[in-house]
Amino acid sequence: MSKFHIDCLLEYSVSQATEFIFQVEAAQHEWQHTLAEHVSITPAQLNIQHFERDQSSNRLIRISAAENSRVRLHYSAHVETNIPQRPLDAVENTIAQLPAESLFYLAPSRFCESDLLVNMAIRTFGNSPTGYQRVQAICDWIYNNINYESGSSNNTTSAKDILINRAGVCRDFAHLGIAICRALNIPARFVFGYMPFYKALPDFHAIFEVYLGQQWILFDATNMGTIDEFVRVGTGLDAKDVPFASLFGTAELIKIYPQITKL
Amino acid sequence: MSKFHIDCLLEYSVSQATEFIFQVEAAQHEWQHTLAEHVSITPAQLNIQHFERDQSSNRLIRISAAENSRVRLHYSAHVETNIPQRPLDAVENTIAQLPAESLFYLAPSRFCESDLLVNMAIRTFGNSPTGYQRVQAICDWIYNNINYESGSSNNTTSAKDILINRAGVCRDFAHLGIAICRALNIPARFVFGYMPFYKALPDFHAIFEVYLGQQWILFDATNMGTIDEFVRVGTGLDAKDVPFASLFGTAELIKIYPQITKL
Amino acid sequence: MSKFHIDCLLEYSVSQATEFIFQVEAAQHEWQHTLAEHVSITPAQLNIQHFERDQSSNRLIRISAAENSRVRLHYSAHVETNIPQRPLDAVENTIAQLPAESLFYLAPSRFCESDLLVNMAIRTFGNSPTGYQRVQAICDWIYNNINYESGSSNNTTSAKDILINRAGVCRDFAHLGIAICRALNIPARFVFGYMPFYKALPDFHAIFEVYLGQQWILFDATNMGTIDEFVRVGTGLDAKDVPFASLFGTAELIKIYPQITKL
Amino acid sequence: MSKFHIDCLLEYSVSQATEFIFQVEAAQHEWQHTLAEHVSITPAQLNIQHFERDQSSNRLIRISAAENSRVRLHYSAHVETNIPQRPLDAVENTIAQLPAESLFYLAPSRFCESDLLVNMAIRTFGNSPTGYQRVQAICDWIYNNINYESGSSNNTTSAKDILINRAGVCRDFAHLGIAICRALNIPARFVFGYMPFYKALPDFHAIFEVYLGQQWILFDATNMGTIDEFVRVGTGLDAKDVPFASLFGTAELIKIYPQITKL
């Protein structure tokens, strides 16, 4: 059991009327419990809506910002987490063994073109030990073969592109891990949230989770932090499915500071 | 109100143990009512599971087939449909007006790379009348610019590829329509089902639906049939999200005959 | 017979030592005759080299610029041209009829992926009248289907991309025309040079030429000027083969003004 | 000095009239000398043409085959080669040092998209020792990271695709080596010919050569044979520029047996 304080600040300069959809709140999830939280948005909006994505633990906030305004979102929370010990002997399931709700995460998505990476995945990981060890081998391979470089990718960069560019950021590492797992018929999905970094500035972190044995297990190919210090925000198909912010209009990100402190 | 008889036959020659996930049953949907239906699968399976996708009206069947077997699925049904009259004056929503559950269908998916088609969409349809007329203009453009050709695409062909190849089949027409709509911030999703064709052999049909005004509206860029003679089976992000059959193993499709008759 | 005065100015701010290869001089070509020309480059360089590409009429200039310098190239010329009348009845050749030196221009190149556009080309132009009329139909199609938009493409944009984006500039129009022709087994190559524009600022212009009957014939899908007012500079596989300037180092283009005046 | 006997057989079943362009003859090149050679083609053709590509040592043969015929090409030769010792200390040139005729091989081509691999190349090889050692490091990387697998690629597969698929055949290994070298401003070109294989059936072999110091140097990332046992046939931009056979018509390759024996 660990306790964390989250202090997340986002600030935008809005030049034309813009609709924002934010996802910054700690998820409702069995591995974590929010003791206290507070969202404040300025300017005081006429139209703030909180909502949840139907099938998941994702919590979202919609606001409409007027032109020539400055939007400032501040989220603070105390969260207690209890991520299960890593099940090093978790096995891969046959398709017949997979629960129905995990099947959805076998299909390719925009940024995880698993259907195009089947041959690569089988070639590279077909002879690995299966289960937990195979997914760890995938993470190790990504860590050893892809450079972590800020600015090396953009918001249309997919798993396929990462294999060409050989560089990316956390979301790209996650996309590639997901794509390879799905190509091997291991359900895999994108997870983002807060994680303390000891050698980098605070930022949202993207990792992935796979279904092995009878559970979802988090994996992080970036080795930027410690997985049991992760506080989950969003869970989905890929980064486009659960972005921390979607903007419809014209606004510029002025400040992003998603800080998390272990208590 | 229309009545239809569905008589759908699928047959596979299974060479190695194969898990099938079928989606052939008429959806539970407000526009249609299943009066009677029957699924028979041979050989009698030890392990037939019916399940539904959590958030949607999708109904699925899982079976495990042994090696060197022949799987035969027969689905017959009587379905009554009542698809609303086409609302020719339906308007586009601002993002703020869209219901939360429609937002999911604004994001790009594997086969509908709307994020890569934004400039194309604005260039080609930016000056169209908005709302229903714009989506109809998109369908007309696809119909006039893309050839319908069996065998011109495969199961990795995406909306982007269709613009290069200038040919496709119904799923490709739907993918392109969806991608263009999403690029214009119109929620759009993939729908497949049964539709009587008068000039083609019976087959599943793929179309798409968009959210305008306060409703989902079906569109078909292929002009192969009549939209109010459509019986819905699956609704999802794209063809990979709701395939009529997913196979994990080694099996060959021997027969596909999804017949529908208007009564 | 027409006479032109060319007055071309290029200026670069060089921050780190940079090697330039320029191609701005009127080509040695049977359809044109240079009456007088002058190249001046400042600062006076220690190392200016003029050279020609082996197999073609391309004339190039190499210079080495020091860091923190400003390079200014001025080319002026009087050129007389005599482009043959357009042979409206020129026929397509069988491969057996093509001269050996034209075969080189049947293969795909970096920006003209004709091998990927064979189906598109046959679908769209397979039933056109052949020969001159077919190539004109290709130009008309490009003109009607692709928007001319400054800034809509970049220096990695290929013919395939243009079909997705539906916009480009002159080099993109030429690349698409070339790719479609090669896909139909019509030898086609990239040509750039000077052409008076009546509705646009002076700039280099890119067009293409195809081998029909027993001659190369110029085509321009942009309709920005008059083909018999074209002064040829470079002829090659595509824009990367004959750029007006290649830079190896760090320099910024400050001014580009390739003016041509009909006398 | 080594001596080789070449015995190359190609056989095609021609269903519709087909024009063939073959390139199977040992090149005219300073490193090799053809002592004797013989080409026989059956059926005796009315129209066999030998020609050379203008700027290079490439020798080609064109024939026109009638429908429902069987074309059989047999090439035998005795060739003496004298490939220079490998210059392990060959240095990279600055652009200013490169001879004009090598500059052509810095640009991307259809199958070697060096412009898209600049970041990958700098990331992966930017800190290698330069010159010969860098190109060797590129070959080693390709050998260690790309699987040699017959049938893993096809005739539209490019260097970029190989990085995604992580498998290819000799032409793909060569394309990737060329693309990376060009991305690092090292002139590189495609070379194919005959090489004795000791663990594989006779086939044409594709390698590449780069310009270092004041010479072209052959490199082979496949390690399938010994570079000084190579007999050159074609030299060009990539495999599409110098194929061993181009077909225009409808014919099927029945037999390919390009045997070479060291004497």
UniProtKB/TrEMBL annotation, chains A, B, C, D:
InterPro entries: Bact_transglu_N_2 (IPR048930), Papain-like_cys_pep_sf (IPR038765), Transglutaminase-like (IPR002931). It comes from the Bacteria. Coiled coil: none annotated. Residues 162-223 form the Transglutaminase-like domain. Gene3D superfamilies: 2.60.40.2250, 3.10.620.30. This is Transglutaminase family protein. It comes from Acinetobacter corruptisaponis. The lineage of its organism: Bacteria, Pseudomonadati, Pseudomonadota, Gammaproteobacteria, Moraxellales.
